[in-house]
Amino acid sequence: xxxxxxxxxxxxxxxxxxxxxxxxxxxxxxxxxxxxxxxxxxxxxxxxxxxxxxxxxxxxxxxxxxxxxxxxxxxxxxxxxxxxxxxxxxxxxxxxxxxxxxxxxxxxxxxxxxxxxxxxxxxxxxxxxxxxxxxxxxxxxxxxxxxxxxxxxxxxxxxxxxxxxxxxxxxxxxxxxxxxxxxxxxxxxxxxxxxxxxxxxxxxxxxxxxxxxxxxxxxxxxxxxxxxxxxxxxxxxxxxxxxxxxxxxxxxxxxxxxxxxxxxxxxxxxxxxxxxxxxxxxxxxxxxxxxxxxxxxxxxxxxxxxxxxxxxxxxxxxxxxxxxxxxxxxxxxxxxxxxxxxxxxxxxxxxxxxxxxxxxxxxxxxxxxxxxxxxxxxxxxxxxxxxxxxxxxxxxxxxxxxxxxxxxxxxxxxxxxxxxxxxxxxxxxxxxxxxxxxxxxxxxxxxxxxxxxxxxxxxxxxxxxxxxxxxxxxxxxxxxxxxxxxxxxxxxxxxxxxxxxxxxxxxxxxxxxxxxxx
Amino acid sequence: xxxxxxxxxxxxxxxxxxxxxxxxxxxxxxxxxxxxxxxxxxxxxxxxxxxxxxxxxxxxxxxxxxxxxxxxxxxxxxxxxxxxxxxxxxxxxxxxxxxxxxxxxxxxxxxxxxxxxxxxxxxxxxxxxxxxxxxxxxxxxxxxxxxxxxxxxxxxxxxxxxxxxxxxxxxxxxxxxxxxxxxxxxxxxxxxxxxxxxxxxxxxxxxxxxxxxxxxxxxxxxxxxxxxxxxxxxxxxxxxxxxxxxxxxx
Lengths: 518, 250
Prior knowledge:
The complex is a heterodimer. Chain A is mostly helical. Chain A has helices spanning 5-8, 27-38, 40-55, 59-81, 89-98, 100-135, 144-164, 166-195, 212-223, 242-271, 285-292, 297-331, 349-368, 373-405, 411-434, 437-461, 463-468, 495-498. Chain B is elongated and about 65 Å long. By secondary structure, chain B is α+β, with helices and mostly antiparallel strands. The chains are: A mainly alpha, B alpha+beta. Chains A and B meet through loops of A and helix 1, strand 1, helix 2, helix 3 and strand 3 of B.
């Protein structure tokens, strides 16, 4: 069978992403991937107190605005994920809008974000597991040696899950994350009920506390609750109905994380309403509330909820990071060996084998310098957010350009980008100015240098590899109706597709604007 | 208690359904590669509505986007909207199959792989044949289906579709992948009691002499314990007839 020239030139026999476990994950597994990336349990326990430092009793307003912004980012990502199934997450998406240079910047930002969040979640999981062991009365569970052993053990567990098959790791993530969210709902539900049913209406006024300026300043830390919510975008190849499940998973994760953090913030602000500084002055607000309500067992539930959330986050981030490295390996942007897929398990095993030791060794080195896990966690998570924000900024910028390029630009897409891009720019700038100067500067310079150097080197030596950037699981001949081409005794009647190349293959379209072929 | 009546179709849905069908028809008539703006102009629909409609049809896999992401074509799933029409093999081909039927005491079946699924085009009239819809829907339980699956090892059937019929059905994706690799290596598929406990079949591929693509499968069916035997002479006979069929079918 011959296709019209404008189709035949494009089709390849095999997808550039061949080797992964194609189209095999259900919607819940994809959704769990994204939720785990955002790790809402940790956000529920930590973020409201940080937001309250700015917004006071109007904390829920900052979180509501942040939820709206996250939904806008999800909308921009959805413009791509409804149309292409990628494994390289935002990196591959940015490439389709802005081209290889900005894509490399986005990819490097993502790589930094994924790596640091992976390290952070391994650290957090080790820290919470140690706290649980200490509760059980195990001697020495608070020592640095125990933290090192736990990080290594957890990294081994993550490696086993992620290499053994995406269905296994997605299943583990779904189970663990469901447990975590259930526990957190129990913890906050009990706190809310034991505090009293009477609604705290004071929180509903945005001008309560430090006023509108405070609410706006609170949006920045509130966005931290959503970091990692795009994780499903790396499952394009493996999701069963990617164009439906992935945009929906990213959008629902933004909404779910928003609702959960609003619940957590409301509970905590109400709980500390009578304390002079309110929630803002608290370092361990949930534990303090639990102790205040004479419910010490809630603290234990919180430990399990946080440990499981961090573990699910570690698996989800490793999954995304491995697929990013896999895509770059396939394109030749990174060494091609990273693009290898395990024949039986159909996972990017080389990428995982390269990435996971790094994710485990860095926390171990940090512990060796004398940092406690709790102290190491903060800079890791804060710096990870920097990488993610850069990637979000670029993908939102890329969305309308991409739509224009394929001739499907709408006013809504332009509007979404023109709202979200300035906001993200301000957030990024505010982030750089508030984060510890040395760390932020170091990371920014490192990202820019790495991406720039790689871009220039590739442009000089291997321009064809730059042209390959943006590889995704594209439609191949087998996805089209009527392939493989088969003629029985009489050709199948499919006049359009069987037209010879020298005949006009396409019927004249009434009223259609003349379009260039490619 | 009477069953609940189906919910009425709300106000704007009939139009949306009509528009979706019109969009599908437009992709067929304009041909693969037609862009969203061309479809929007042809259907006189607002652009935003058309894009939403097309994205929906792509999400449901009735349409696919071509690699340039601009053009659309009918997706493999759209094939489900039509009954596959597979013409009868020519007289010469049927004569080859009839000749084989005269030489063996097994059921002899010829299947086409047109449209990417198993369709019996010359089933043995004297032998019980497997239910045809099962052959098409569950290729993993028949020798003819295994030949087809072995052609595309990078697109294994989803684990959820590997239905178990008997205790011998291979429903584990990894075991199936290993078995399909053997099938591809030996150019021979064998199935003993995977669909019905007592029955089995052997199948060999018929490939186009021009480009080697898999066009058909020739199968022998019989009692499961007989199929499990080596059957060396029988398989040679089967292969000989498959070779004679190849130029007649492509």
